[in-house]
Backbone:
């Protein structure tokens, strides 16, 4: 992937939702702020529920009359992911959060992206 430019001379090194990072700035939908001194966090509010899907119950009712193997449909399971994963950045004079839908890989992806953002932030020079 090639770096993208957001109107400045610096290329965008990392993009997390609507948050972009260059070597020295955080670019948000409402402005450009110094990267030095910013803090990155991940909040995982994902809830996983598991249950028997409606189609399994219907198939069990239909096939239980033909053979007792219809009860095997009750072994079907369905996972639902509820909630969100939020990535937040806070710095001098700004705070922004981007939310992502839950899923089996979202939390790992968000933690990896924030780890990269923290690494870029640690090497950012102070701006005047």
Residues:
């Amino acid at each position: 992937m090639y770096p993208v430019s957001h109107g400045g001379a610096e290329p965008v090194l990392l993009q997390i939702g609507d948050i972009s990072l260059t070597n020295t700035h955080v670019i948000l939908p409402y402005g450009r702020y110094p990267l030095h001194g910013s803090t990155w966090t991940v909040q995982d509010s994902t809830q996983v529920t598991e249950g028997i899907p409606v189609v399994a119950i219907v198939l069990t009712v239909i096939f239980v009359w033909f053979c007792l193997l219809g009860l095997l449909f009750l072994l079907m399971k369905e996972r639902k992911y509820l909630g969100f994963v939020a990535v937040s950045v806070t710095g001098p004079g700004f705070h922004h959060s981007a939310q992502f839908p839950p899923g089996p890989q979202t939390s790992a992806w968000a933690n990896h992206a924030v780890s990269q953002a923290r690494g870029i932030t640690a090497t950012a020079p102070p701006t005047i």
